[in-house]
């Protein structure tokens, strides 16, 4: 049992640049298209929604982007985050595999989301924006943006998916403590929300609907911009601090991962951890399998169509080439609220199409069983989202037990569950169901997506 458990970096060892994987790929990802002209969108199309600096990062072909000093100063509140060796979990599984997890639950809101919320709020405030609008599912992203807006003195207005708004009152209190204003989505405050409510007054909402509402509000207010917590290139770019730190921490551990697993909602925590390792793999310096894990109820990579589709339900965003379940898709209200999105990061979708990563979908009872085993050995109760990565990690570790392989598995533990405990109550109380997406529902939601 003896042996080192935590690999810690100094604040001085924090990365000073984010890594952009695009120039290292064999082909560039297809561009976003304007829905009316089907031509690639230009900076002017995006200017009502995002500040110039983020529009530039969205399309940059530079391999590295400097992290502003003002952002590094805020990152110091929780970064560098620890890399743990899961020795107690290894023992429970009786596996020869070595399991590591990079833990992002040490941030002020308990997830990886502030890694991008902080730079997004910073660039907006630097360009004179006074208010940000956004959507949130489980509440992790809304809390992260609320915290970041408080840091730079911006107003923050959040549309939270109704299902989570009702299930998770503590996230609402956290966002309000940071000074944000909250609305359940669909709401009566936007045309998009009113339209949904007219068709279905009991709608439990979806990330796609909440995005429509936040985008509509920002587009109608010259002092406001919109912030997205996942999916877009600049978001994945900011999250690469996770992988850059992990690479340095593996040097301290004198070890190298053979398999990386992470959960994918829109792809940001997974991309953030995996892309710096993918750079090493593409350069021939590392041989690593990279594996995305998604819920069986919302399986965009494994069962979605790779097509141009809207990022939101009302069709207000540019068309994105991505793995999609259809922009009208409303996933079952599973407990991993952060994984209930109909699409996937276009960059990650492209990388998946290139065959550089693989993907699997896991039903939620297996995920929570993995979460409970992890909690009882490692002492951290994982957020519902990363239990998906842990389930895949445990499958791999148990395969190693059968084959005797001493593989090194790295998993992204992107958040803790302290405000998601009702999900564990449902699991422990035997009230959790596996809701694999039925084929007919998928066929219906994909009808009309070319
Ligand atoms: C938001 C969130 C996710 C899903 O988003 P990604 O962009 O796929 O990372 C996963 N886990 C946690 C803890 C989250 O807050």
From TrEMBL:
Q: Which SUPFAM superfamilies match?
A: Tryptophan synthase beta subunit-like PLP-dependent enzymes
The biological pathway it contributes to is: Amino-acid biosynthesis; L-tryptophan biosynthesis; L-tryptophan from chorismate: step 5/5
Q: What is its EC number?
A: 4.2.1.20
Q: Which residues carry this modification: N6-(pyridoxal phosphate)lysine?
A: 113
Q: Which GO terms describe its cellular component?
A: cytoplasm
Its taxonomic placement starts with: Bacteria, Bacillati, Actinomycetota, Actinomycetes, Pseudonocardiales
The organism named in the record is Saccharomonospora marina XMU15
The protein here is known as Tryptophan synthase beta chain
Name the needed cofactors.
pyridoxal 5'-phosphate
């Amino acid at each position: 049992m003896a042996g080192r458990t935590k690999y810690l970096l100094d604040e001085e060892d924090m990365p000073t640049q984010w890594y952009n994987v695009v120039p290292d790929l064999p082909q560039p990802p297809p561009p976003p298209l304007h829905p009316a002209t089907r031509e690639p969108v230009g900076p002017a199309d995006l200017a009502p929604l995002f500040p110039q600096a983020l529009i530039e990062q969205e399309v940059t072909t530079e391999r590295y982007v400097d992290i502003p000093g003002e952002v590094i100063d805020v990152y110091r509140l929780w970064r560098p985050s620890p890399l743990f060796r899961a020795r107690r979990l290894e023992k429970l599984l009786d596996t020869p595999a070595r399991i590591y997890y990079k833990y992002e639950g040490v941030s002020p809101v308990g997830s990886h989301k502030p890694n991008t919320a902080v730079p997004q709020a910073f660039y907006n405030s630097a360009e004179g924006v006074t208010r940000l609008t956004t959507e949130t599912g489980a509440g992790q992203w809304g809390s992260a943006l609320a915290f970041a807006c408080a840091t730079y003195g911006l107003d923050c207005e959040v549309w939270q998916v109704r299902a989570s708004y009702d299930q998770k009152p503590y996230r609402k209190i956290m966002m309000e403590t940071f000074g944000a204003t909250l609305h359940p989505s669909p709401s009566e405050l936007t045309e998009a929300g009113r339209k949904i409510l007219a068709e279905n007054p009991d709608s439990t909402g979806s990330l796609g609907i909440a995005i429509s509402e936040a985008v509509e509000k920002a587009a109608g207010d010259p002092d406001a911009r919109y912030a997205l917590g996942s999916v877009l290139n600049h978001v994945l770019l900011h999250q690469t601090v996770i992988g850059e730190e992990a690479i340095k921490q593996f040097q301290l551990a004198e070890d190298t991962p053979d398999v990386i697993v992470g959960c994918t909602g829109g792809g940001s925590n997974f991309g953030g951890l995996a892309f710096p390792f993918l750079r090493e793999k593409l350069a021939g310096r590392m041989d690593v399998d990279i594996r995305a894990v998604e819920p069986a109820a919302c399986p965009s990579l494994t069962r979605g169509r790779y097509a141009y589709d809207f990022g939101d339900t009302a069709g207000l965003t540019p068309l994105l080439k991505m793995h999609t379940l259809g922009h009208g898709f409303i996933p079952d209200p599973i407990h991993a609220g952060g994984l209930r999105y109909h699409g996937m990061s276009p960059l990650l979708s492209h990388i998946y199409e290139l065959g550089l990563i693989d993907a699997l979908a896991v039903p939620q009872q297996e995920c929570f069983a993995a979460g409970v085993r992890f909690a009882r050995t490692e002492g951290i109760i994982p957020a519902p989202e990363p239990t998906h990565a842990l389930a895949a990690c445990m499958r791999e570790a148990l395969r190693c037990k059968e084959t005797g392989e001493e593989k090194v598995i790295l998993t992204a533990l992107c958040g803790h569950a302290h405000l998601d405990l009702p999900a564990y109550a449902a699991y422990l109380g035997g009230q959790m169901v596996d809701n694999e997406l039925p084929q007919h529902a998928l066929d219906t939601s994909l009808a009309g997506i070319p």
